[in-house]
Amino acid sequence: MHDVARPPVSLGRHRLLFAIGHGGMSDVYLALVNSAAGVNKLLVVKKLRASLLDEPEALSMFMDEARLAARLHHPNVVQTFEVGREGPIPYLTMEFLDGQPLHRVLRRLGVGERTDPALASVSEPPDPLTLGMRLRVITEMLEGLHYAHELRDYDGTPMQVVHRDVSPQNLFITYDGQIKLVDFGIAKAADSVTHTQGGGLKGKLAYMSPQQAEGQAVDRRADVFAAGVMLWEMLSGRRLWAGRGQVPIARRLVDHDLPNLDVEGVPRALIEICAKAMAPAVHERYATAEQFQLELEAFMDETGLDASIRSIGKRVAQAFAAERRGMRHNIDSELLRLVGDGEASVSPVQLWHEPYRGEQTERTLGSNEVEPADPDEETANIGPAEHVEMLALPKPGRRFDPEPDAGSSMGGTFGTLDEDRSGDGTYTGTNPGLAAELVAKGQRRMIVAVVATGLLASGLSVLGSRLGPAVEEGGEEGDEEAQTERVDERKHAAREVQDVGAPPEAALLGAGDCDRDDKPVVELSGEIDEDATLRCDRDYLLRFHTRVASGATLTIEPGTIIRGDRDTKGTLIVEPGARLIARGTQDAPIVFTSSQPLGARAPGDWGGVVLLGNAPINLRDARGEAIRGRVEGLTVGGSYGGDDIDDDSGELRYVRIEYPGVELAPSNELNGLTLAGVGRGTILDHVQVRATTDDCFEFFGGTVDGRYLVCDEPGDDGFDFDYGYQGRLQHLVVRDARPKAAGSHAFEVDNDPNGTSAEPRTRPELWNATLCGASSTKPKPSRAILVRRAATPVFHALVVGGFDRVIEVRDEHTRVELEGLALLGATSSTGAAPTEPSEGFDELAWLAAPERGVVRNPSGAPDCATFGAGATMVPAAPLALATSATSPAEAGSFFEAESAWLGAFGSEDWTAGWVVWGK
Hints:
Blueprint: E1 10-11, E2 14-22, E3 26-34, E4 40-48, H1 56-71, E5 80-86, E6 89-94, E7 99-101, H2 102-108, H3 131-149, E8 171-174, E9 179-181, H4 210-214, H5 220-236, H6 246-254, H7 268-277, H8 289-303, H9 309-319, H10 321-340, H11 348-351, H12 432-441, E10 446-449, E11 459-462, H13 477-489, E12 521-528, E13 532-534, E14 539-548, E15 553-556, E16 561-564, E17 571-574, E18 579-583, E19 590-594, E20 609-612, E21 629-630, E22 639-640, E23 650-658, E24 663-665, E25 668-669, E26 673-676, E27 683-690, E28 697-700, E29 705-712, E30 719-722, E31 728-735, E32 745-749, E33 765-772, E34 783-787, E35 794-801, E36 805-809, E37 817-824, H14 843-848, E38 854-856, E39 879-880, H15 888-891, E40 901-902
Parallel strand pairs: 12-14, 13-15, 14-16, 14-17, 15-18, 16-19, 17-20, 18-23, 19-23, 20-26, 23-27, 26-28, 27-29, 28-30, 29-31, 30-32, 31-33, 32-34, 33-35, 34-36, 35-37, 37-38
Antiparallel strand pairs: 1-2, 2-3, 3-4, 4-6, 5-6, 7-8, 8-9, 10-11, 21-22, 24-25, 39-40
Keywords: ATP-binding, Kinase, Nucleotide-binding, Serine/threonine-protein kinase, Transferase
Pfam families: Pkinase
Protein name: Serine/threonine protein kinase
């Protein structure tokens, strides 16, 4: 399964290879540039989205970032090479950093016990970062920060740069140890064309200084405060604001009430340095980042606590070896393709003769990634920061993209409450729960802004901002009451996507209406790092790769619709240690579908759903040692497998996945539902995948069980089992009415790609399946069951009709058990030779053995050849098993004992109400 999103265009002399980041304003690509001298180089291209070219403000903001970035030249700041245009589209090019952002390094290595599941099967996992390494990371960052603060214009005038988003997400560590500050997209500089009146909130609440949280004008000391928070978290191994929601954090910042900075085992001198950097009163803080740096370095000299940048790079490279290999593989594949297409003359070997600079990733921001809050207690391991959905809604006739971008004014935990740009009192922002609480609690320094258009986009601002006629300066009690009334009037406005920790005051915004016609559309992309809930009173647009990170749970309410974006090949990825709780009902299923309008939807419109777990797989390296699997094409994450047979990736109940399987390259599509290393603690119950370009259900190893699974109109196979899958499935339907040029199969079963007997052996145990297929239009036949490469599946109680072949068994060590089979229609004709001997195995003779329990065209069986309106998969009466056949009760406690019949159905249609048949 491949997952590299390849861009369709070039920009100037830059050949875009694939996307590595994106945001609300811009997209970021890895690119190959060929100079006039024939020198090829990898770099990163960031371009403004074409859809925003008619937005003067967006263009101004992008150019503000470009102008500032082009001026920054320092070893600890990401290098920008060029600012240019291709037609009307502005872009900038940056160095290609081969490494990881600090928040991922800390998640993987931490400062204590390692918990990252990606290291579960590594025999010698890398050690945590030493204290000296952590201090060196901070001092290198401070040196780059001080350089940016001191930047002067060409005439010597100070540019007064403030980054405003100093955080672990914006500090990059390369595999050779370079420490690079990135993402000056929301930085403030004296020459910025775009200005925000009132100092709208920009940045992440977890790293904001009190002055920044209050919306006051900020200087370089706001960045010093954020650096102090980063140091404290790296010393303590936990979040400064762990276990606290946005409301109490904002309130405590405003009140200058910071957590106790004492950390057991940390030298008192370091705690004092942190305390000075994080002083609530700005005049008590270090005046410059350089002062902060010098005090840290003096402590390091006195104690001998230091580390070379090379040692830091080696430790990070060891921890992310698989990710690095994955990135190189993706790049090499693209370069080889370009060479094959005649679009480039450089080979991967030639390119790697240059220093491998790696990726500069713009952090993938979105409605579900503005740094989620740590849901654990204050002693939790260090992790990502606050998370809140962008809630501003579109004004009539005006585009609004709620996915914040590194260079967008919409960045930050609360987003930005910007000035009234249209002159009609319209403001954008986020977090209505916080806004409502601040109003209710009488916080006069932070008040709610209301869109004066009939839709609510609640947000935050500071007293003195120009808020239009809805809110007057002064924040008097009567004004607050008027604001609360306006909030109450708009009961159907957007609510927070995050359910956990939402304050009760959020109820002011109404309970929501799942059947409303004017649901707001919320974009999902990037990384979900904390528990979050998607609600049915809004629609969701799934863009690019949305990843649920380890430790986080994404919950989806019954009746919620998630639409996969075709242009960005939207895909949902649940990483090992994360959980997806999609618990629909028969009357209100959860639907993943295409973003295209009804009538225009087609297989392959979007990616699909990918669950990754820590259950056993059978992949081995050249020495025969167990290794983790990896979803090919994912440049971030994507590994799976371990030793936990009870691994829990969540629950899918009454879920429908439609039109997935985006084609990433010829003959390379995603599956509808991919389950890789998913364990038995996961629940699959009433799940349909329909109208795919590839397989409906793909099992890469693991032990997950499932019931009531439907594959309708697959592009290739219905159920595909590989890499040692050993789960149990019951009540399965494959319904395929489309003849295909390359015959597809209902069940395709393999042990491993090399056909070895690696353990665990692929051994799905399947009960009660109805398989209705279509003949192939080419010589390659369709098969109900194809078993190869040393797999050992077990089949019970099947109904099969419509395929060219019933079963084909290949390869020496392959073994199949089958008991109970009803053959329907032409498939039952012995004269038509529905199956034939292959590789020395006589399938005809094998099926004819009495122990197979084969019956042909039993009375009352469904008609597999009928797929039109009114067709039913339910037989007139349950098709009885042979009296000597094994019953489900004898097969184990998982299987429903009362299902002692052939096929997926007895007398009840369990698909009624939630399954949709046909295209």
